[in-house]
Amino acid sequence: MGIPIIDFTGLDLEEGKPLGDKEQSLINDVGSQIVDAFRTVGFCYLKNHGIPSALIEAYRKTSRDFFEQPVEYKQKYARPQDTNFGWVALERERLSPERPGDYKEAFNFNPADDNKSWPDRIPEFQSLSHELFQQCTKLSFRIFDALSTSLELKERSFLRDCHKNMGKKSNATTLRSLFYPRITPDSNIKSGQVRCGEHSDYGSITLLFQDDVGGLEVRGLDGIYIPANPLPDTVLINIGDLMQRWTADKLIATKHRVLIPEEELKKCQCRQSFAFFVHPDDDCTIICLDGSNKYEPITSKDYLDYRFSFTY
Ligand SMILES: O=C(O)CCC(=O)C(=O)O
Ligand SMILES: [Fe+2]
Q: How many CB atoms lie within 10 A of CB 54?
């Protein structure tokens, strides 16, 4: 089964406003398409998602200007362990414990941690990061409204309300710009090393914006990885482990990865993507939504701390 493309046109329903019949049937329909995707392949593409492509392109270009700076410069903006702001060096993370460090760099951003200095050579980085964070927050809320509806939660705003502090100190949601350098003979790729090791995401949902280089693969139910090819003007969405736990395994946090390309032509291209990792508010208690108590209640913060302890 491939990854479905879901049209999000018309799904910008005002918070708290009672829905007319037409709106209700639209949100039911789109919500059930999303839930079907998350029960099976675990990923879907959203088109007509409303985030301006000019913003996405500007953020991509600006991030790239940063990543192309010398290592000594980027080092000045390295992310301290206890914040969600700054540069993550090549091979610093290993998303699959069986592999060497990922051949990637990243820059993390959470508006609540914006009290550090920004790279002075990259003038628009700060304002574009804020703007994209805000746009992704808005889209996430719209996705949550459709999900809450389709999962038949008490209120349409149920999931939205659990994420009300996105962008504030008490919520771990992060915008992350990823950069996968070109591979040359000097890269000294280690045995088993990849751009991004097999993993599932940690939080509730992830929005992923790819460039046109490709390379992302998603594990199907049969265990075979299939390409999640870049489609223009779409955003890929998937769920993380916390949402799988919350839904008592009704929705699946699918494993995915980015290998080193085999063709020489692809190897010499760098790749960029950005991920918006959405987490519930720190103090939100994750109790199985179906009342099954399949998993013990845990706060969002405790769950994330536990998951992160394996990555670094
Ligand atoms: O770069 C990509 O396409 C995927 C990145 C990813 O899955 C992650 O960072 O969690
Ligand atoms: Fe991921």
A: 8
- 175 touches ligand 1 (CB under 6 Å): no
Q: Can you give the residue ranges of every domain in the chain?
A: 5-311
Instruction: Supply the ipTM of this predicted assembly.
Output: 0.99
CA–centroid distance, 256 to ligand 2, in Å, is 6
Is residue 273 in contact with ligand 1, taking CB distance under 6 Å?
A: yes
Ligand 1: which atom is nearest the Cα of residue 106?
9
The HSE-up count of residue 188 (CA atoms within 13 Å, CB side) is: 3
- Fold of the domain spanning 5-311: Jelly Rolls (2.60.120)
CB-ligand 1 contact for 238 (6 Å cutoff) = no
pLDDT digit string, tens, across residues 62-109: 999 999 999 999 999 999 887 889 999 999 988 888 899 999 999 999
pTM of this prediction?
A: 0.96
